[in-house]
Amino acid sequence: MKNLKTFKEFINESSNISLVNEALATAADMKDGAVSLKDRMIEIEEITADEPDYVDLKTLKKQYEVLVKALRSSEDKIMVIDSESNAYDLVLAYHIGLQKRRNAGDANVKVVAELKFNSPWDSRNTLLKATHYHVVDGNFDVITFMDGDDFSEFYYAVYLKKQEKALLDWGNKNMTEDDTNF
């Protein structure tokens, strides 16, 4: 019994334990999940060569043109990450959380534009709405939207490669799991 700690000793030892990182995503998650629009198009074109019904390439190219024009950059400098990646929570937080903040009147979250394009994955060629946000204190832009095939939907975040660190840092500092829920 003499080896048992008092409550005070237990509390003092516990306060020296570092807290677990509650990050929605890490730089490694972004590196593994994000890809430039250019590289993604190359990958999809290769798949479509073997599976012609994989995606409507013409519609996908139009979607990418809209995204490139909105972010005023080239396909090799614009990144896309979706909810199928290890950054699932971050992508979801940006899609849902920024929408919630904007609806609540958060002056830090500015809507630059609402974009429309058709889904290249859905056989019904559904019209999609994407929102282009500018986050003032993070000084970055992100476009979020939901797309999917006939059976499932995925969330997307599209941003400038040079702003990835700012997007990741701001998201981990300012967003929580609450931002991933409608």
Give the helix/strand layout.
Layout (H helix, E strand, L loop, with lengths): L6 H8 L12 H7 L1 E2 H14 L6 H15 L6 E5 L5 H16 L5 E10 L8 E9 L4 E9 L4 E8 L3 H11 L8
Antiparallel strand pairs: 1-2, 2-6, 3-4, 4-5, 5-6
Helix pairs in contact: 3-4
What does this structure look like?
The protein has 182 residues and is an alpha+beta fold. It has one domain (24-180). Helices cover 39% and strands 24% of the residues. The protein is built from 6 helices and 6 strands; from the N terminus they run H-H-E-H-H-E-H-E-E-E-E-H. Strands 1-2-6-5-4-3 form a 6-stranded antiparallel sheet, with helices on both faces. A hairpin with a 4-residue loop joins strand 4 (127-135) and strand 5 (140-148). Helix 3 packs antiparallel against helix 4. The radius of gyration is 20 Å and the shape is globular.
The biggest beta sheet, please?
6 strands, antiparallel
Shape: globular
Uncertain runs are 16-21
Content of β-strand: 15-25%
- Residue-averaged pLDDT: 90
- Please give the count of helices: 6
Order of helices and strands: HHEHHEHEEEEH
Q: Which key phrases capture this entry?
A:
alpha+beta, 6 helices, 182 residues
Short description:
By secondary structure, the chain is an alpha+beta fold. The chain has helices at 7-14, 27-33, 37-50, 57-71, 88-103, 164-174, and strands at 35-36, 78-82, 109-118, 127-135, 140-148, 153-160.
